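ARCHIVE CARD
Drawer: 12
Card no.: 0347
Subject: one protein chain, sequence and derived structure
Cross-reference: see card 0346
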Amino acid sequence: MPKLLTLVLAGSLALAACQPMYGSKPQKLRTPEPIRPPQELAADPTVPKVLESCEVYTKEVKVVRRDTPRAEALTREGDAKVAEFERASEPRRKGELIVDGIEEYLRALDKDPFNAHATLKLALAYDKVLRKGCALALLSRLNRLAQHPTYAPAATAEIDAITEPQNKSWFSGYRRDALSAVGR
């Protein structure tokens, strides 16, 4: 009898052990939903965004102190940086070079605020980094220089350079706006 009781007890324990815990079915595991990238990153990364707004370089000129030779030297240094930017292949180096070129043009305009050549070169550099607002503001500044009798010859020559057929690639994304900014 004790063997039979032990067998019945062991059988009932084995039968009870095979039952689900707490008398319910186990919950099914759900697969988590995939994480979606933010909307701004979901856009096509190959198409860069053109910036319409800009804090324009408009330093108030109270006393005219033109250092034209130094401004021309700084403009040439900026030209060298931008030319090296166009030849560079590494993105980080390209970024450093174009920023350095823009800073050289800005320093040239510090030395000679009415330098039409430096103004156009700075507008072209801003065009390369897709700063449409800055480029258009500088082109309208070039137009204002062309209306002043002292600076008109140099500014008109730079405006004519924009309209030449071999320079159609300048301001290509917004050429009509650029030409209207210079009064053409």
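Annotation on reverse: The helical segments are 2-17, 39-42, 68-87, 91-111, 116-128, 132-147, 152-163, 175-181. The chain has a mean pLDDT of 81.
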